[in-house]
Amino acid sequence: MNRRLRAVLSRLAQALPVILGVVLVSFLLTRALPGDPAAYFAGDAADAASIEETRVKLGLDRSMPEQFGLYVLQLAQGDLGQSLTTGQPVVEELARRLPASLELTLVALLVSCGIAVPLGVLAATRPGSWIDHACRLLVTAGVSLPTFFTGVALIYVFYYLTGWAPSPLGRLDFIYLEPPSVTGFFLIDAALAGDAETWFAALRQLILPAATLALFTLAPIARMTRAAMLSALSSDYIRTARAAGLTSRKILFGYAFRNALLPVVTTLGMVFSFTLGANVLVEKVFAWPGIGSYAVEALVASDYAAVQGFVLCMALLFVALNLVIDLAYSMIDPRIGFDSK
To answer: What is the C-alpha separation between 182 and 193, in angstroms, rounded?
Structure first.
């Protein structure tokens, strides 16, 4: 078997105890949520007998070990249960909503990386200049401004005052039809269908929420890029390269930037995982039908199956992300080796 494939399988095996722990903790924490799901779904006018009947139908009258055993058995069959609020299987709800969250998060990260990485490099190569001060100002603004405030401010300026942006109501304006679903990403699906009008409409809807998240994620990426580049440029091997007469471009991008990429990639992975779980405020502000808003609605209703499905989905995404970061390490610096960590 290929050495790298064995290492991948080993990492996945190491992640199994983590996933099992997430399953147990999410099960216990959802049962500790305030409120009674049986009373919620029985209605405000329900009497004690109706509430008890609803509790029996939901299986909440059984002991905790019995409920957990049934839940694990369902998971083994690939069944995350049925959402009590929507009446749909949780797997289908997550599969429908996850692409919306991923598309928003990935576009925001692409925008923030396209700005933060060059800005961090320029700030490191020109310390004390106006570029360096602009980088610090942008980092401070990104850290200080809450995402919901930034989102509301952008809506007020670009939708209410100027009318440049479309209405912040989901992934597409009501006058457009969703493209045929292939990946769930509207930009990709519209491109595959050759529908340029829908593609531009989906892009316009993405601009404001993606800009809101990009400003938030830009700060740690720019700060880490600047710090990593300053550390690399002050290293002995850079002084040796300069003494050897190598060009500034070769030194900057061939040596300094490549070595500075490792902490930047680590930061990027952390930012991506945090943003995917924390973009719920942006999804609520822009009525974005992602898994974040789905999880909040499930928490309010004490919808156990939906909350547990969301937590498990996030855990699997984090495991996959860590695996991708490990692969990226070995590609950036072969000296590390994929199976040496």
So the answer is: 9
Domains of the chain with bracketed CATH: 93-289+313-332 (1.10.3720.10)
- Across 162-183, b (16+ Cβ under 10 Å) vs e yields eeebbebeebbeeebeebeeee
Residues in contact with 65: Cβ distance below 8 Å, sequence separation at least 6, in sequence order = none
Q: Where are the alpha helices (DSSP H) in 32-129?
A: 37-42, 48-58, 64-76, 90-125
Note every long-range contact of 147-150, with CB atoms under 8 Å and residues 24 or more positions apart, other chains counting. 147/212, 147/213, 147/216, 147/278, 147/279, 147/281, 147/282, 147/285, 148/281, 148/282, 148/284, 148/285, 150/212, 150/215, 150/216
Q: CB under 8 Å to 155, separation ≥6 — which residues? A: 165, 168, 208, 285, 286
Its pTM stands at 0.80
Other C-beta atoms lying within 10 Å of the C-beta of residue 70: 13
The distance from CA 32 to its chain's CA centroid, rounded to whole angstroms, is 26
d(Cα 125, Cα 225) in Å, to the nearest integer?
11
DSSP 279: T
CB 123 within 8 A of CB 204: no
Cα gap 56→51, rounded to integer Å: 9
* pLDDT tens digits, one per residue of 168-195: 888 888 888 888 888 889 999 999 999 8
Q: What are 252-304's pLDDT values in tens digits?
A: 887 888 888 888 888 887 888 778 766 788 888 898 888 888 888 887 777 77
∠ at Cα 159 (158, 165), nearest 5°?
75
At 88, is the pLDDT very low, low, confident or very high (cuts 50, 70, 90)?
confident
Question: At residue 89, what are phi and psi to the nearest 5 degrees?
Answer: -60, 140
What is the residue-averaged pLDDT of the chain? 82
* Helices and strands in the chain, H and E counts: 15, 0
Which amino acid, residue 39?
A
* More confident site: 29 or 90: 90
Q: What is the DSSP letter of 33?
A: S
